[in-house]
């Protein structure tokens, strides 16, 4: 938005009269802070990385259109979540995701144990091209696995296998994907299998609101 658009918005919504010069000065400071935040050094290791594209309606030069916010959320060794970055593009694609992963590496990340993402074609390969040893965990919702909730919540591997029998029509399409993660510790399951980064982000907005 241009300074005059912000000026008009503040006057209409809040009844505040703010000069364009002040708006311009504030914007410059905010832009500098955003650039510093976007390029700040990161931890060397993140046990879990969530990446997802969030589609937004954005006004650009007076025209409202859909753009994609590329979100990267890392979980550090103490279990705390951090927003590692947000990049705005016209559309989502594996090629730009590779640039995002390269940016994380250039800012100090040396190892990602598990990357949680959706089923975008080429995305797992884009991640592995930078971090070849990273385990890729695709979102269970994107895998259409609503019928496998009982398998996800089992306390033993044997029971989980029984609940994910290939004879069950709801399990058959996603069983190969599920088998790749069945032996992980039970306490690691909730952060990994349930939701995408976009859904976590939306939930955070709802709580904050």
TrEMBL record:
Keyword DNA-binding part of the UniProt annotation: yes
Molecular function terms from GO: DNA binding; transposase activity
Cited InterPro entries: Transposase_mutator
Highest taxon in the source lineage: Bacteria
GO biological process, one term: DNA transposition
Family classification: Belongs to the transposase mutator family.
Record-given protein name: Mutator family transposase
Source lineage: Bacteria, Bacillati, Actinomycetota, Actinomycetes, Mycobacteriales
